[in-house]
Structures are given as C-alpha cells and as structure tokens.
UniProtKB/TrEMBL annotation:
PANTHER family: PYRUVATE FORMATE-LYASE 2-ACTIVATING ENZYME, PYRUVATE FORMATE-LYASE-ACTIVATING ENZYME. It catalyses: glycyl-[protein] + reduced [flavodoxin] + S-adenosyl-L-methionine = glycin-2-yl radical-[protein] + semiquinone [flavodoxin] + 5'-deoxyadenosine + L-methionine + H(+). PROSITE patterns: 4FE4S_FER_1 (PS00198), 4FE4S_FER_2 (PS51379), RADICAL_SAM (PS51918). Residues 48-77, 78-106 form the 4Fe-4S ferredoxin-type domain. Pfam families: Fer4, Radical_SAM. The keyword Iron applies. Its cofactor is [4Fe-4S] cluster. This is Glycyl-radical enzyme activating protein.
Length: 303
C-alpha cells in the first residue's frame, strides 16, 4: 500500500454535475484563493474541522459530557461550541445521536481512495462517467493525484479535475500528463476584481488556462460562476467568452450564484464574507447562454 496521503474533505458518490456521466467526486482540502462566495469553506484549509448543524441539535447534552476540553455548553436548548477551547478531537461528534456535530477532513492514502471510487465502476462504464477531483484546490496535491489517476487509467476509469487554476505552472504541466478533463474556473477577466473578491492574481489563472488549452482545447470545459458584483453583466460575459474563443475552447458551464455556503460558514462558527444573500435563478443566465452560442460556444447552465 502507498502511504502517501491526501487531505480529504468529502467523497461524493453518484455526482452528476462534475463532468460527464455518473461520477465520484473526491473533495480535497487546501485552497490558495479566498473567494468570498465559497460554497466549501471547510475545504479551504487542511486539517480536521468541527461542523455544527444547529437544526439537528436536540440539546441532549451528550456532547457536553464527552468533551474533554469543556468547550461545549447548552444554552437555550442548543449546544454552543467555544472554538477557542475546541481541539477538534471528535469525541462530541462520535456521541451525538442526531449527527448535529461532525468532523470534516481526514487523511487518506491513494489506495484507500481508490478502493472507494472503484466501487461504482459499472456506473462509470454505463454512463461515460468517472472520477473527479475537486476541492479546495485539488491540483495542490497533483503528485498524489497522479498516483491515483495512473491506477484509474489502467482500470479504464475516466478522470477529471475541477480547478481554479491558481497553482504553479509546474503543477499544471504535471496535471496535463495525469488528468484527462479539466473543469477550469474562469471567474473574471478584471484583475482588480479578481484580487478584491478572491485574493488571487488573475495573470496566474489566465496563463495556466492558456497552457492547458494549448495542450488540447477539447480537454477543457470552462466553468464560469456567475456572481453578483463580480461578473453578472453582458460586458463581463462577452469578455470571458471571447477569451475562450481565442483559446479555441468550445465548452463552458454557467454556474448561477447560490447561498449554500452561508450554512457551511455557520456550521464552522464563521461569518459569511460575501454581501449578497440572494441566489440567482438559472433562467437569469439564459441571455448569457444565447450570447455564447452566437459566438460558437456550447453553453450549459448549472453544470
């Protein structure tokens, strides 16, 4: 068994929005960006994270009795976690009868991950699916992913990665050799907005996107999160679509902004940093799809 490990946030079986067919999506921890609208904040940093879903809590006090740090109390019929005291030992989650408390994040070897994802091989074969690596930013772990994808390829299983593209060029070059399909985020072509809303440098993303596209534009699907205040205008979409055309990339997914991240931030005991609290409807993106199609692109809404 290979003892190198990957920090896994979650493994989702029967995913249908992370590439073609029925897939298993492996969510890995650590991300170099801090997108204000992030839907997976538990995957931003590596390690174990305590998640508390208040709606499931019945105030039984089991967590209070089992916390060695005395970091949990019951107030107004609900558990309250003192994050400063919590060492994320997981004992509260192990004894919570309603699973209101849970631990996100664990180290897994490539072999352990393989044993899980291979279970659904028959569904991959029947639907043209496979395995997708997501995050966080999966390509931060390309060395370990390459071990997995080599084995998956030999088993005839298709591989894909969801990436923000904000990684060193050397990682991208390694990924091109190891992964078949890139679901590549393009959030904006405005460097100031990129910095303000994600803390990242736009040039890194664009250079990496261009490199992957040159290696095979048919291996790239652009994923465009449509975000209020960032890119929710025809001007922004036209610029992004033209960038795709210039790089000979034909496929793009428009992903309407949603507020699912708000709940996860609350579960982590954190404030949601984005100022928009209303999701976009898919039909609000139809006009953008029409613009893209007129430019020769194949556009889907929602992945």
């Amino acid at each position: 068994m290979n003892r190198r490990t990957l920090p896994v946030s979650n493994i989702e079986r029967f995913a249908i929005h992370d590439g073609p067919g029925i897939r298993t999506t492996v969510f890995l921890q650590s991300c170099p960006l801090r997108c204000q609208w992030c839907a997976n904040p538990e995957a931003q940093t590596e390690g174990k994270h305590l998640m508390f879903l208040e709606q499931k809590c019945v105030g039984c006090g089991s967590c209070v009795k089992n916390c060695p740090q005395h970091a949990i109390t019951i107030r107004e019929g609900k558990a309250r976690v003192c994050r400063e005291k919590c060492i994320v030992c997981g004992k509260c989650a192990q004894t919570c009868p309603n699973e209101a408390l849970s631990i996100s994040g664990k180290q897994m070897t490539p072999d352990e991950i393989y044993d899980i994802v291979v279970r659904d091989s028959i569904y991959y074969e029947k639907t043209g699916g496979g395995v997708t690596f997501s995050g966080g930013e999966a390509l931060l772990h390309i060395e370990e992913i390459a071990i997995l994808t080599d084995r998956l390829r030999r088993a005839g299983i298709h591989t894909a990665v969801e990436t923000c593209g904000y990684v060193p060029e050397a990682y991208i070059k390694k990924a091109v050799q190891a992964i078949e399909l890139f679901l590549f985020d393009i959030k904006t072509l405005d460097a100031d907005k990129m910095k303000r809303y994600t803390e990242g440098e736009l040039s890194v993303v664009l250079n990496n996107f261009t490199y992957v596209a040159k290696c095979g534009p048919d291996r790239v699907t652009a994923r465009i999160p449509v975000i209020p205040n960032l890119n929710h205008t025809e001007k922004e979409m036209l610029e992004i679509f033209q960038f795709l055309v210039d790089n000979h990339v034909k496929k793009a997914d428009l992903l309407p902004y949603h507020t699912l991240g708000i709940t996860k931030y609350k579960q982590l005991g954190k404030e949601y940093p984005f100022d928009c609290r209303e999701s976009l409807r898919p039909d609000e993106l139809i006009r953008y799809r029409s613009i893209g199609e007129e430019m020769g692109l194949c556009i889907t809404i929602g992945g």
